[in-house]
Design a protein that fits this description.
Layout: H1 2-9, H2 15-46, H3 50-74, H4 84-94, H5 102-121, E1 123-124, E2 127-128, H6 129-139, H7 143-156, H8 162-178, H9 184-190, H10 197-226, E3 237-238, H11 254-257, H12 269-274, H13 281-294, H14 302-307, H15 334-348, H16 351-356, H17 367-381, H18 385-399, H19 408-420, E4 422-423, H20 448-467, H21 483-495, H22 501-509, H23 517-537
Parallel strand pairs: 3-4
Antiparallel strand pairs: 1-2
Length: 544
């Protein structure tokens, strides 16, 4: 095998020289195997068929076999005799959770494909999740229609996965155990290179929780006016009434919650559709790229436009699409690349930038308009935080055995009620598997990265706004055309994973600690307004 040949030829050299030769060849091997695996993954996700699923499994197996051999050889190096950056690369090569037994590996891969396929092909009647079902959840204000859509999506997706998921967890846990971890959750948390990740994220959640409580109280109060007799001031909010299939983003009911009606709005959807410069997926992609170019960042390769699937085809099933700027390789920690992806939206979704694009007509800024803008952003960013926090709380406890198979669903709703202050609109049982109705569970994608990214993106935003020498409230800052901001972003990304993430964070922000202070600063005017509104209207805060 290739890696073994490299090791054998390197005999007689210093440990450092052997390691450098080994890594050079490993990069070639994994680049090729990784490319082949990615192509197969892309083919399956853009055309979900049994054939493409089988090809994907084989490509994953080939990659896993190559990696297992590389991992075995990497374990032979004496890290104490290597330079710091070399030792770091060798250490990461040793990390794996792949099953050793080929039959079990194939079974786990096939189960993973089956879970993804069940999710991606689930329909309610003739309606797919996107755009039909998510459209109903976003636009309908009919209580019963929303409830029926919410329930039937879970019947057609998660409920069908329960038994498959149990076996999938068993196999994935075994793979983690065979590679020295107590369970798969420990392996996932290990990617952050800290011993106390749970404590770190808990502190950040507690820092932002008062703001979430105020937002929740305001939203619940407003919904009591819309769904009289269905929503009560001292109760949980029913999960189907928040404009989103998973109640993770509440911006779609902004029309019910807008603090000041008849004020200028940042909703540019209709203007985008009617503007000939922006009214196709390709034009919108070019527009997004232009923002990055204005910062001095690199242009997308021609292959991106040649090979991307920018519009869902009508003749096949496809899996969930991800944004391009979420694909930065070797992020300092898993939350970093998500944060960089969302960082740009904080500059784009500002009156200054949207006016520059000609998408805001007759916009007038004042204190009431500012509260409307902040409310709109909070319904996307703050409403998400407990959801982003709880998903892996559930999954880590499934992996470590604290949540048994017989309580998958009940514990899921305990966490959703505890952190989000919501409840299911109809009784749930252990015949249901509501976690599976969310993409990242069947797709086996860790989720705490999203919570971390929502904190980090505001930390990053404050840093790039300072680099751009912006003066004013943080929520009004756009760094468009600031090459100084672009250089700061590029300097952090350039480090990749070559240093522990606190060094990359320090490069960007001047601090080695993740902090909720910037997100609290961004929303401070809204939080002050929410407190005054609650005291004035005398509605309740919190839940049972």
């Amino acid at each position: 095998a290739l890696a073994l040949i490299v090791w054998t030829k390197a005999q007689g050299q210093t440990e450092q020289a052997k390691a450098e030769s080994f890594l050079k060849n490993v990069n070639k091997i994994l680049a090729q195997k990784g490319y082949e695996s990615s192509v197969a993954y892309w083919a399956f996700n853009t055309n979900i068929t049994d054939y493409n699923s089988a090809v994907q499994v084989q490509a994953s197996l080939a990659y896993s076999k190559a990696y297992a051999e590389i991992q075995n050889i990497a374990s032979r190096f004496d890290l104490s005799k290597l330079k710091e950056d070399t030792a770091r690369q060798i250490k990461f090569l040793r990390n794996s959770t792949a099953l050793k037994n080929e039959t079990e590996f194939k079974e786990a891969e096939n189960l993973g494909s089956k879970l993804s396929q069940l999710y991606s092909t689930a329909k309610v009647g003739n309606d797919s999740l996107s755009p039909e079902l998510v459209g109903i959840m976003a636009k309908s204000r009919d209580y019963n229609k929303l409830l029926n859509t919410w329930r039937r999506w879970r019947d057609e997706s998660g409920r069908k996965m329960r038994d498959i998921y149990r076996r999938f967890v068993d196999l994935k846990n075994k793979g983690a155990s065979e590679n020295g971890y107590t369970d798969r959750g420990q392996a996932w948390r290990g990617r952050y290179e800290v011993d106390d990740l749970g404590a770190i994220v808990e502190k950040m959640w507690n820092d932002v929780r008062p703001l979430y409580l105020e937002l929740h109280a305001y939203v619940r109060y407003k919904l009591t006016k819309v769904y009289s007799g269905k929503v009560f001031e001292d109760d949980y909010i029913e999960a189907h009434l928040l404009g989103n299939m998973w109640a993770q983003n509440w911006v779609n009911i902004f029309d019910l919650l807008e603090p000041y009606k008849n004020k200028s709005s940042l909703d540019v959807t209709s203007n985008l559709k009617n503007d000939q410069r922006y009214n196709t997926p390709l034009k919108l992609t070019k527009l997004a790229e232009s923002f990055f170019l204005s910062l001095g960042l690199i242009r997308l390769p021609a292959s991106f436009y040649e090979k991307s699937l920018l519009q869902k085809p009508k003749d096949r099933e496809v899996n969930q699409a991800m944004r391009r700027n979420h694909s930065q390789p070797f992020g300092a920690n898993p939350g970093f690349h998500e944060a960089v992806g969302d960082l740009m939206s904080l500059s784009v979704d500002t009156p200054t930038h949207l006016e520059r694009l000609g998408l805001l007509k007759d916009y007038k800024s004042d204190n009431e308009t500012d509260i409307n803008v902040l409310m709109n952003v909070a319904l996307r960013k703050i409403a998400f935080l407990p959801f982003g926090y709880l998903i892996d709380q559930w999954r880590w406890n499934v992996f470590n055995g604290n949540i048994k198979e017989t309580e998958y669903n009940s514990k899921w709703w305990e966490l959703r009620s505890k952190y989000q202050g919501i409840k299911p609109p109809v009784p749930r049982s252990e015949n249901d598997f509501d976690p599976g109705a969310k993409f990242h569970i069947p797709a086996d994608v860790p989720y705490i990265r999203y919570f971390i990214s929502y904190i980090l993106q505001f930390q990053f935003h404050k840093a790039v706004c300072e680099a751009a020498q912006f003066k004013g409230p943080l929520f009004k800052c756009s760094v468009y055309n600031s090459t100084a901001a672009g250089k700061k972003i590029a300097a952090m990304l350039k480090l990749g994973k070559s240093k522990p993430w606190p060094f990359a964070l320090e490069k960007m922000t001047g601090s080695k600690e993740m902090s909720a202070t910037p997100i609290k600063e961004y929303f401070q005017p809204l939080q002050e307004w929410l407190v005054k509104e609650r005291c004035s209207k005398r509605y309740k805060i919190g839940w049972p």
